Amino acid sequence: MRIRRVLLAVFGLAVVVFAAYALNRGVLIGSEIHRGSTSLQDRATAYLWRKHCRYLRFTGINDDASLTGQEREELDNYRCRFFDR
User: Which end of the chain has fewer CB atoms surrounding its CB within 10 Å, N or C?
Assistant: First the structure.
């Protein structure tokens, strides 16, 4: 009976340590693709796509712009990392 309590306490501590480690690094909670524009030197406007990956951390949710491209299809194939750092 005593060994079971010790094993349960060690398992609970391991879960708490892993959760703290994951939130410190940042856990992926989703991503979005947005269209933006930029001005070129000849006053023309170019449209770019930007993929934002969202990570849950101790400090809240961080929105990191991870990739920019000309075509939406190339950003659809890009996968955000599960842990941010």
Answer: N
